[in-house]
Amino acid sequence: MADLKTVPVVVRELSDEEALAVALVENLVREDLNPVEETEGILCLLALELQISVEEVKSLLYRWDNEQKGKATNNVIGSDQQAQIKGVFEGLGQSWQSFVNNRLPLLKLPNHILEEIRKGTIAYTKAKAISTLKNEDQQKILLDEAIAQGLSLTEIKQQIKILKEQQINEDISLQERGLNNADEAEVLFKQQVNKTSQLLKKAKPLKNTRQQKKLLRLLSEIETLLTNTEISKDKEIEK
């Protein structure tokens, strides 16, 4: 090879759209691609192929999926579009049905969870499990804990089960006592403080430096907030 003065190559002139399609496909075969990037990349590729917007692609895929499942009676997608969509997924070695059912729902996850998937700090399956918690604060706490401690999917599901059972018991308890909004807020506040206090007592220095700094910053903010609250109370008493 070192003695060769010329190397045979094939030069193709590509339109802007063709060049973009090639770039998208090349990006989709990257080994370090996370699920969010892959999902968005495939949607862009389909939008380019079908000459419609990404939002229209998502709507079209959902409608076609519903038709296949017998949830829609009308032909929602033409044969040409079907062939184009199948062609894109065949080229990627994937199934469009699997994409609709397993990947599109990914984009509906809360932003704070999506961001961690983008960073590659947590696996999609774990993030999806955490998103089943209805309470956003619980989501964020468990998300941080899962990342910092490297919890397995099984451990995350166990934590979710415990949190959901606690929430049910708290709701029942509040209903039985007939608490008003102010009382309920105070009870929930004390319960959250107790839960957090128990976690802090068991806490050990985190291996993840970024998470350790974040935890220290949050603790500092809590301390400052509580200190300012006490100062405000003292001033009110003096008046």
From TrEMBL:
Gene3D superfamilies: 1.10.10.2830
Domain ParB/Spo0J HTH per the UniProt entry, residue ranges: 97-164
GO BP terms, alphabetized: chromosome segregation
Pfam families for this protein: HTH_ParB
A GO cellular component entry from the record: chromosome
InterPro entries for this protein: Chromosome_partition/occlusion, HTH_ParB/Spo0J
Protein name, per record: Chromosome (Plasmid) partitioning protein ParB / Stage 0 sporulation protein J
Classification lineage: Bacteria, Bacillati, Cyanobacteriota, Cyanophyceae, Oscillatoriophycideae
